[in-house]
Amino acid sequence: MSLYSAGAAFRKAIQEESPLQVIGAINANHALLAKRAGFKAIYLSGGGVAAGSLGLPDLGISNLDDVLTDVRRITDVCDLPLLVDVDTGFGSSAFNVARTVKSMIKFGAAAIHIEDQVGAKRCGHRPNKEIVSKQEMVDRIKAAVDARTDENFVIMARTDALAVEGLESALERAIACVEAGADMIFPEAITELAMYQQFAAAVKVPVLANITEFGATPLFTVEELRSADVGLVLYPLSAFRAMNKAAENVYTAIRRDGTQKNVVDTMQTRMELYDRINYHKFEQHLDALFAAQKK
User: Fold this and answer.
1) Quick check: is 58 catalytic?
2) Tens of pLDDT along 60-76?
3) Which residue, 83, 99, 211, 262, shows the most beta carbons closer than 10 Å to its own?
4) How far apart are the C-alpha atoms of 112 and 22, rounded to whole Å?
C-alpha cells in the first residue's frame, strides 16, 4: 500500500510557499495546465462543479457523487494536492459529513472546506445567506475530524458569518471550529485587508483568502495578503470565467461569420493540446505495441 498522503503534500506546500497560491481547476485538463504554470496546489469549486459540470447554479443542488466524479478525474492525472469545496457536507447529519470526508480521501483529495451555511446554501458572495448555529457548525467539524482515515488530510472550516452576523461572530465561529479540530480557517466574503490579520491572530492556524472576481472581496495581491498574515490565497474560478468568455466569443463568431477563421488565433493549437496532455507518449506506447504484434 502506498504511503503517499495528499494531505501531507498540501501541508508541505503551505510551509514552502507563503502564502500558498491555490488555483481553481475546473477539470483534469486545467489541472495539468495549472501544474505547468508552476502552481503547487489546485482547487475544485462547488460552484464550478454546479455550473461547469451540471449547468446549474450554486444553490446546494449538486451532490457528493457529482463532486467526486470531478475529483477522481483530476487526481487520476495530476499529482498536485487538491482542495475541494464540499459545501455543507452533502447531508443533514454527522453520518453524511463522515461519508463525504472518507470519500474525498479515497478519491485522492488533499483537503476539504466545509461551511456554516444552511443546506439550501448560496454562493458566498450573494446576499441573503442563512447560516446554522455555531454549535451545529462545530458538530460538522467534529464529525469531519473524527471521520479522517488519514490524519494529515486537511479539514478547513469556512464561515459565512461576516455578511450575516458581523465580524465578532465570524471570529467566534472560527475560534470554535479550531477548538473542534479544524486545521485551517476560510472566512468568506472579507471586505477589508485588516480583517484577515484579525482572523490569523485569533485562530493561530493558516487562514485562506478567497480572491474571487466580481465578489465582495477586493482583488488583493499576494504581497498585500502576506502582510496580513494570510496563509493561502485562493483563485477559485479565474480560468473558468476566462474559458467561458472565450467559448462564448468563438460560438458567436462561427455562427455569425460561417467560419472559424476569424477566431483561430485565439485558440490553443492542436500541437499545444497534444503537448499539454502528453499525447505523444501515449501514441508512442501504442506504436510500440503494434510493432511488437507485427513481429
Assistant:
1) yes
2) 999 999 999 999 999 99
3) 83
4) 13
